[in-house]
Design goal:
InterPro entries: HPr(Ser)_kin/Pase (IPR003755), Hpr_kin/Pase_C (IPR011104), Hpr_kin/Pase_Hpr_N (IPR011126), P-loop_NTPase (IPR027417), Ser_kin/Pase_Hpr-like_N_sf (IPR028979). The chain is α/β, with parallel strands linked by helices. About 30% of the residues lie in helices and about 30% in strands.
């Protein structure tokens, strides 16, 4: 997993979140990188007190800040702004459609700090930009597998190439479940501990079935057979049947599979001729829902068995 960042130019290019930004000055700083979704209003930094300034954050200047700069003597304002611009500020953003003072534009241009403007109110813009940055800076990874929505449970199917993941997913779709992604799954971590998977845009709604080639699930089975994205709830790993391998037969011990630091329930399903994998996956999803309601079939069975062994009468051996 690489450290994710955005350039200031990415903010200008936004067409989805409605940031509606324009550039006033500091074009040569559009390559500055953002690594945090935190926003700061400079406040006292405009008076020369920069003790708690976080230059790595977006600096938002609203009506209060711009009015203050216009009301104080221009010589003092220039001194404060030039001092502020000595810090490696990532970007200034002026809200409410206000036109920044000329000395602010000049200082930003000389320091190579992008100075942007938006017509939004400060509170509205901060909400929009925070959502934009949180979505864009989420930890991400790519996984080879298949993601399906089974009874509302996000099931991630893993296994080596050719073991039958796509065929299982196709059978699940035929049974009325939904495909999210086949082959390459783009996974984002949403705080505090949720993983959201979706397909790459180029292969969305498509599956590769050996012998058939590439098929479009949306065209074949309709919009009810697909989902754009889904939270991953559990991992099912398909493995080749090994007669010398001891597989879990009770399900008492919970295994976990870690992705981006998030632990997910993990089941290993041995594959062999005659096993109905689709039904097994459906039952695994239903069992996951039961566990979410606090009912653990395997543990309940185990507790009943232990209780029965404790009350079993002794001394009935036949002489």
């Amino acid at each position: 997993m690489n450290t994710i960042s955005l350039s200031i130019k990415d903010l200008l290019d936004d067409k989805v979140y409605g940031l509606d930004l324009k550039l006033f000055a500091g074009e040569k700083g559009l390559s500055h990188r953002l690594y945090s979704s935190r926003i700061q209003k400079p406040g006292l930094a405009l008076t020369g007190y920069t003790e708690h300034l976080h230059p790595d954050r977006l600096q938002v200047l609203g009506n209060t800040e711009i009015s203050y700069l216009r009301q104080i003597p221009e010589e003092s304002a220039i001194v404060y702004i030039e001092k502020l611009c000595t810090f490696p500020i990532s970007c200034f953003i002026v809200t409410k459609g206000l036109n920044p003072p000329a000395f602010l534009k000049k200082a930003a241009e000389n320091a190579g700090i992008p100075l942007l403007g938006t017509p939004h109110q400060s509170s509205t813009f901060i909400s929009l930009i925070t959502k934009f940055l949180e979505e864009s800076l989420l930890p991400t990874t790519h996984i080879h597998g298949v993601l399906v929505d089974v009874l509302g449970v996000g099931v991630l199917l893993l296994g080596k190439s050719g073991i039958g993941k796509s065929e299982c997913a196709l059978d699940l779709v035929i049974r009325g479940h939904r495909l999210v992604a086949d082959d390459i799954i783009h996974v984002k971590k949403k705080m505090p501990a949720a993983l959201v998977g979706q397909a790459a845009e180029t292969i969305q709604y498509h599956m590769e079935i050996r012998g058939l080639g590439i098929i479009n699930i949306k065209d074949l089975y309709g919009v009810s057979s697909i989902r754009e994205k889904k939270i991953i709830d559990m991992v099912l790993e398909l493995v080749e049947w090994d007669p010398d391998q001891e597989y879990d037969r009770l399900g008492i011990d919970d295994r976990v599979y870690t992705i981006l630091g998030v632990e997910l329930p993990h089941l290993m399903i041995p594959v062999r001729p005659g096993r109905n994998l689709t039904s097994i996956i459906e039952v695994a999803a239903r069992n996951f829902l039961l566990k979410g309601m606090g009912y653990y079939s395997a543990r309940d069975f185990h507790e009943k068995l232990l209780a029965r062994m404790e009350v079993r009468p002794l001394g009935n051996e036949v002489e």
